[in-house]
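Backbone geometry tokens:
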Amino acid sequence: MFAVIDPLNIIIYNRRLSINLKFSLMIYDILPHLSFYLPPDIRQDIETFVQTLKTNTPAGEYPIRGTDIFARVSEYRTDDSENRMPEVHRKYIDIQIVLSGQERVYHLPLNGLRDFSEREYQQKEDVQFFDNVPKDNTSHWLMLRTGDFAVFFPQDGHEPQHTVPPFGSETVRKAVIKVNGQLWI
């Protein structure tokens, strides 16, 4: 475990939990530990779905508990495009699980994004993007590898799909479980 202290943030980081005491709480761990973090009312539904995931689970949307909990499996190539933008969600919490491959995910708390130009919130997709956000010491990078997961709450800006240096672009298969924030109690 180590702490990073700068004028804007105090971040306590270890393999199991990353806490930004001023702005944000997010979870980062390995998949066998996911159950430790899940609220009791949704634990069984999510555990049952996660047990069905394989590295070759087909891309698509999977219902878990109606519109309150569902998953999207996708496959993409990582890159370091300057056109990528951090995003936040208002209604849903993201549980992002890497099924195969590895990527870096840029993480910046929502309060840190408010200083940058916001695009209009897209209610149907539950996403809001932010433009012209520099990658500096007010944020941090997560490295997600096969079998890792991260939980991003509504106050957690995140920007996945970045290449892991020095490996270059690679294919990542990921499941993102969307949980209605009202259930995470």
User: Anything to note?
Assistant: Residues 28-183 form a domain with the Jelly Rolls fold (CATH 2.60.120.370). The longest helix spans residues 40-52. Confidence is low (pLDDT under 50) at residues 1-23. The helical segments are 34-37, 40-52, 110-113.
